[in-house]
Amino acid sequence: MWLFLGIIFSLGVLIPGKHSLNLQYDRDQVLHIVPETFQQVQHLGSSLLLDLWKPLLPEDIWAGEDLHMRVPAPLVQEVKDSLDQHMISYKVLISDVQELVDQSMRRERTSHTQVPEGYVYTQYHTMEEIYQWMTQIQKSNSKLVTQHYLGKTIENQTTYYLQISQPSDKTKKIIWMDCGIHAREWISPAFCQWFVKEILQNYKSDPRISRFLKNLDLYILPVLNIDGYIYSWEKDRLWRKNRSPHMNGTCYGTDLNRNFNSSWGSTGVSYNCSSEIFCGSGPEPEPETRAMAQFIERNKSDILCYLTIHSYGQYILTPYGSTTKPPSNSEELMHVAKKASAALMGKYGTRYEVGSTSLILYSNSGSSRDWAHMIGIPFSYTFELRDKGSHGFVLPPDQIQPTCEETMLAVTTIIDYIDQKYFPGGAVMLTSGSLGLSLCLSVVLTWTVS
């Protein structure tokens, strides 16, 4: 009986009479399990099909690898008894999911008339507030920031991206960053907003930022999956997909990060529209995916780097997810990712694992990261932000600032590397202060000695 109930809960089917504005997770628990034997893996894969947070598919459960699973409150004891019966050890990562949900939605009240000066970057924001923030950030920085239309969602919401560009006579290259592909990963849009704030606040005083803005334009899409994000605020905090209807409206949502035209549907996906990783009816039929793909395709010759921000797990992932065969520039991709990871760790000691998705996480196909690299964008990365499971998809607001601060260091390390690779010499010419003086002295001394 508990298995049947577990499937109902895991698929997000609401039991009649239980539908409310916010789907509640009172006393639901997230368990951390590390199976040790093949038999334990088999048991977990075949009978504990609840809500897998890590990995996302039962076939990706491996001996010795972490498994995170949300268990609805009515089933907690039965699931624990079953684990004990099969001698599978576990620990409770989250003892009450709803407590964390309430915490992530508890916010200071701020006046929107003060945006962006009064905008609180250390709390999560509704889509309405993010729209207002985008409008105001452009008005307040009109010489540097423009807001552009990208497309419409399945529910007719408008998708915009921000362009940060210093006026220049020359054609500049592009760094693209998107956030909010998965609705429940709220730390992702929070970082996109933080990134914009930091660039605008520091581009005059930070030599590195001022240098790369002379050569590169930054395109930032704060939320791709707008419908899903709104749904995660109003109905179900743990909603992942977009809101496209399937099977005559009996199930909803496509995983937009399984919907791109990169080995679409080949591995690490589901064809069941109730699944969290349903890949859709084909490559890029979803309006959100299609709008972004068409824009990037049109501009791919100018885009040097594609960054997509997700959570959780603390990874910097390189292509590919659909094959273990490395891309042609794998060595350089790894070198840059390791530099970024080291810069990130330098802030608070947070460790990020670096590698291709298929080798260090799980196989998947149809991801935006793989697609971007496959169409010719040389640098393509997925960031999986904090944490490693203590809070999972419901990262508390008090972790927004440290997460964004350390991620900022990693992202600017990548951008700086790309700037210096494609615009060599700029670092010397545009370096100011004592470093510039030392370089000049170095040149003079070298000439004198020779």
Notable features of this structure?
alpha/beta; disordered C terminus; 4-stranded antiparallel sheet; 14 strands; 450 residues; disordered N terminus; 15 helices
Provide an overview of this structure.
The protein is of the alpha/beta class and 450 residues long. The protein is globular. The strands form 3 sheets. An 8-stranded mixed sheet has the order 5-6-8-7-11-14-12-13, sandwiched between helices. It has a 4-stranded antiparallel sheet with strand order 2-3-1-4. A two-stranded antiparallel sheet has the order 9-10. Helix 7 packs across helix 13. The longest helix is centred in the last third of the chain and has 23 residues. The chain is built from 15 helices and 14 strands.
In short, what is this structure?
The protein is α/β, with parallel strands linked by helices. The chain has helices spanning 2-10, 38-47, 76-85, 97-105, 127-140, 187-202, 207-215, 226-234, 287-299, 330-348, 357-360, 368-374, 400-422, 426-429, 433-449, and strands at residues 29-33, 51-54, 67-71, 90-94, 145-152, 158-164, 173-179, 216-221, 245-246, 251-252, 303-311, 315-318, 353-356, 379-385.
